[in-house]
Amino acid sequence: MAQKYRDREHIDKQGKFRVGDLVQLSYYGRNSSQNEDVRFDGNEMGYVSKVHKGYDKYPIEVIWMNIDNSNVATKFFFRELKLFRT
């Protein structure tokens, strides 16, 4: 039973992020020019909706809450995000 639980921990995980985690942009992500937007200052909260397997430059997809996602970045490298603390 312990082996099955340990194997399940690696499914849908990139770095320390898993599907369903609440995240926000890290300092590195806020200062990146590709994440700049007038309506998006980086303090917004979002959740990890998908983690891509294999080689992908930006494997973590985030859905941001309370903003229109049409022109806001949604794919990130794990260094650009941090866990949201309540």
Share of helical residues: 10-25%
Outline the low-pLDDT stretches.
none
Radius of gyration: 14 Å
Silhouette: globular
The total of helices stands at 2
Q: Summarize model confidence as the mean pLDDT.
A: 79
Strand content: 25-35%
Q: What is the number of strand segments?
A: 7
Largest sheet: 5 strands, antiparallel
End-to-end separation in angstroms reads 32 Å
Structural class: alpha+beta
The ordered string of helix (H) and strand (E) elements is HEEEHEEEE
Which strands sit side by side, in order, in the main sheet? 6-5-4-3-7
Structure characteristics:
86 residues, alpha+beta, five-stranded antiparallel beta sheet, two-stranded antiparallel ribbon, 2 helices, 28% strand, globular
Q: Gist?
A:
With 86 residues, the protein is of the alpha+beta class. The protein contains 2 helices and 7 strands; from the N terminus they run αβββαββββ.
What does this 3D model show about the protein?
With 86 residues, the chain is of the alpha+beta class. It is 13% helix and 28% strand. The chain contains two helices and seven strands, in the order αβββαββββ. A five-stranded antiparallel sheet has the order 6-5-4-3-7. The chain has a two-stranded antiparallel ribbon with strand order 1-2. Strand 4 and strand 5 form a beta hairpin. The chain is globular and about 35 Å long. 13% of the residues are buried. The model has no long low-confidence stretch (mean pLDDT 79).
